[in-house]
Fold this sequence. Notes:
A: 659 residues; alpha/beta; 35 strands; B: 82 residues; alpha+beta; 4-stranded antiparallel β-sheet; 22% helix
Amino acid sequence: xxRTPTFLGLDQNAAMLPASDSASDVIVGVLDTGVWPESxxxxxxxxxxxxxxxxxxxxxxxxxxxxxxNKKLIGARFFAKGYEATLGPIxxxxxxxxxxxxxxxxxxxxxTAAGSVVSGASLFGYAAGTARGxxxxxxxxxxxxxxxxxxxxxxxxxxxxxxxxxxVNVLSMSLGGGMSEYYRDSVAIGxxxxxxxxxxxxxxxxxxxxxxxxxSNVAPWITTVGAGTLDRxxxxxxxxxxGKNFSGVSLFKGDSLPGKPLPIVYAGNVSNVTNGNLCxxxxxxxxxIKGKIVLCDRGINPRVQxxxxxxxxGGIGMVLTNTAANGEELVADAHLLPATxxxxxxxxxxxxxxxxxxxxxxxxxxxxxxxxxxxxxVVAAFSSRGPNSITQQxxxxxxxxPGVNILAGWSGAIGPTxxxxxxxxxGFNIISGTSMSCPHVSGLAALLKAAHPDWSPAVIRxxxxxxxxxxxxxxxxxxxxxxxxxxxxxxxxxxxxxxxSALNPGxxxxxxxxxxxxxxxxxxxxxxxxxxxxxxxxxCDAQKSYSVNDLNYPSFSVVVDAQMSSTAGSGSDTVVKHxxxxxxxxxxxxxxxxxxxxxxxxxxxxxxxxxTFGQSGEKNSxxxxxxxxxxxxxxxxxxxxxWSDGKHVVGSPVAVSWT
Amino acid sequence: xxxxxxxxxxxxxxxxxxxxxxxxxxWYDASLxxxxxxxxxxxxxxxxxxxxxxxxxxxxxxxxxxxxGTLSVLPEMRYELH
Lengths: 659, 82
């Protein structure tokens, strides 16, 4: 990626990052649509021998030989038996029955996590710069489990199975499906086995935001990653005939519009179908849009397809406007015709002009790449939101990372829009999603693993979470683009990842497989359900009291029964206690606790308020007491608990929910 | 024969493997054959889970669920890229 290494502070702090030897011992496995091995992001110049522990392979298949792997791309496998069992044999004229990535998504995610350094990267000149993965010295292993018809759980499990056996250190999965109990969710089950082997599993949170309870991949042994923006934009201004200008974004490259105002029409007025406003295939009347700019509403069909529909119907340009579902979030696309995307309020203003002026005109001015956009990051509207629908006492997402307009490697088999009619081929593409934020965290986890080989997956996640930030340098709270208001821990989890601070977190919250088994006991799982997840006989101790609240998680989610607690202002309080254990991974020191709460309805106290740590590895426990007054059902309040020795700040978000 | 079949992931209790089977794969095969003469293992899993995947009818899936050593039989799920 370009820009994100700087945005995350990696470029400015290169001296703090692990040396080449240790960094190149770390292996990132990516379960996705495969890999385009010819991408310069997988150039192995300067890499030494493949780690001796590696047991993976470079599997052969359609247009893929063993020679496609090298010292950077050290493994490539494909898993299609489950897919073929359901949908029939793969049509090799349409997709490669091999690790080759015909889609682009897998090449994008794997190069984001651990791509080599590539100078002169850009998409049509946009986002130009030196591209690299978050862990450029780490090795990559690609596991193709997703095909044209989707990603099947039998194939995903087979991919995880092999990745564990092969010896990856980090597993990156930018996919998800449904919301199932952990013992029914193949990604959760496979990830448990990986975690037990010391593999950090990073998964995307999903793109179902800003709706509440929209997260996927919420098992506590998975690191769940939401998406935020960068400080980069691709402005393309809509200039109307009435003299007003409006901001939009675009990645269009090609012949610009004529240097004069052009007629602009609303798609809903030039179609004979009820949903003509959406610019769906075959819905626009060519006689009414020829030579004009068409204003289309976002929704239902892909954004870039709308541009293609306008172009094929004779339109000369497109303005794509968000509706209430997307608000003001702008996602840039490499459209096939001059086009720009605008927010809902801008779209409404343009519509008002188009509807009121007898001869409305417009033009689009493409302004290239702009950096230094503030505020940034902001939480992406599409990023899935908590609360956690499976176990509300575990706060998810864990963290956010860059996931909007990310440039990274791309497949040579498909154009940047992914449309069949897009004959362009690019080495890098700019796309958005929690799929893009997940591999950022995967690569950063690889960096931490290289710097601290003895750290467990839970410790690595803790370091990333407790050092994350949720306010800007000026002290203002991080924004949510969906609302324009401050985001909450249900939107950003612990906050935005800060990898340089994560290298030296001071204290961490560790978790062992046994802790997760106790967690499953607290969920009242049957022994069969626990065995399905943990692959071993485990019986919960009937004499022992298990509590979800005591899982040593780096964040706090307090759930209060609104029926049990008093109604607002009427008297008695609910008291909830959580216990945590901190482990020192830094110098000796005394840490003091501080708490904040957004509401008088939630009082937070920590006991003890001071913890002294001697040598590295020393542990200390504390108890947090949440005293909560009555609030109506579905209310939420938030807070934060911090431990600091003056140099390190070990922060944990708090969410309180009345259910 | 494929009509009415779908893919299931069969979770097995590793420790329940009868001694007569040297390898788990042989036990999985025998379990599958006990409910279906035609079904074949798609994948045999070693590390992510203990068990296998296979195409089964709903009745066969129900039958294998009650076979000794079977923990659960989960229908295939389709995931999507984010």
